[in-house]
Amino acid sequence: MIMLNLTPQGRRLRILCRKRALLPLKKNSDCRNYNTMKLAAPSPALYIAVFLLITTVASIGASPPRLMRLPASSNKNYLTNEEHWFNQTLDHFSPYDHRQFRQRYYEYLDDFQTPNGPIFLKICGESACSGITNDYLAVLAKKFGAAVVSLEHRYYGKSTPFNSSTTENLRYLSSKQALFDLAAFRQYYQESLNLKLERSNIDNPWFVFGVSYSGALSAWFRLKFPHLTCGSLASSAVVEAVYNFTDFDKQIGESAGPECKSVLQEITRLVDQKLESNGKALKTLFSAAQLKNDGDFMYFLADAAVTAFQYGNPDKVCIPLIEAKKAGKDLVEAYATYVKEYYVKSLGVSVETYDQQHLKKTTLTGGSSDRLWWFQVCTEVAYFQVAPSNDSIRSSKVDTRYHLDLCKNVFGEGVFPDVNATNLYYGGKRIAGSKIIFTNGSQDPWRHASKQTSSPEMPSYIIKCHNCGHGTDMRGCPQSPLVPEGDAKNCSSPDAVNTVRKQIIEHIDLWLSQCQSSGACSM
Fold first, then answer.
1. What's the pTM value of the predicted model, to 2 decimals?
2. What value does the mean pLDDT take over residues 210-220?
């Protein structure tokens, strides 16, 4: 929070703003800057004889926002978690709004070959960014003598422009703004490095990395700012905004296999029946009585199964359920045990993250990421994981209407995802970029929103194995909990992972050398 040594005029403004707290922003622009911004551009009248004392913002944790992100790592799994800060522009698309906020980033220089080694920009996605994780990027940094820097996504974690997450305050939360954040940060960091090295007009070769949503940002950054990076790795990159994402559920069925799929479908039918006859008792069985909305409850149960396949632990869900079926045990009770012991207890998922009443809360707390990601879902990308009309695993209660009602209930009238505009802007799976590596795990349901076919300038690889899921190339197997340096030894086919990694190294090596030989390292 900014601390101000206010002039008398400033103190009068503070009192006036408190009185106006309930007025609409457009009628109270000065108060908007004072009350809601963590950091605002100075107003000459207000900041005469005023100095700023910058302090760190209170730490904000994150809970899984519908499984897009990888679960958080413990401190021991970070290459570094030392925080750094710089001032970021709030609205990159306005020539008049010069407000700024503080954005958090990290740097890891242990392997950096100064002064001309490459800089690897690891993009953080839709959760708090608490450091640079020790995944396969650590191996790549050693190999190429690279510095690693990582920027926290605007609004998430400690990089919060406003004191609350009202729908009005979230208007600057978008992938487009985030891409400009990355471009501004790249310029800032390069200039800072040049200053440290006492040089000027030099550009190190940059390469961008991301997984999942940040994988999409990695591809889009190369697409929109090709002069700022030599290439990008887009791991499990969800570059296609999808309105009704029925392929998501279909992939879960394929990844489960016939026997496990059949059991999961039977459990869904039984749960649907019990929900009608005694919903309160059913929700209590799953320790989810707080989920009053039946759609929220069924989404929670669907995600619990999805997680096992997405993050490379299919046997966690399939083996106990198949054994329960063969033993004639109560399948609903068996599934409840899995949900409570693995999904909630082991992975640390909070039932609250599925409660729309929780999502409506605008106070910044440890669960703020849930609301933030849903805002991006409800305005840009959708990814509505609806039940297919036939042969579905998840309940038919999780349909398009459920998602649209959620967007309206949580964020207000008129909020819905314009996926056509998003795909028109970025190209979707027909992205017209260059020097982008796309990778996906064969068992990952999100791969159907990624680019899975190769083109001359954009190779695409699918890593095929029993437990190859989300971000396998960077995280190894399983993808959660983190395997140090993304070791592939626990993948059912380590060779499949290592073969793709070899291709990744060859592309990075080639594109970095082309970048250097073309003179791209000089501004």
1. 0.87
2. 98
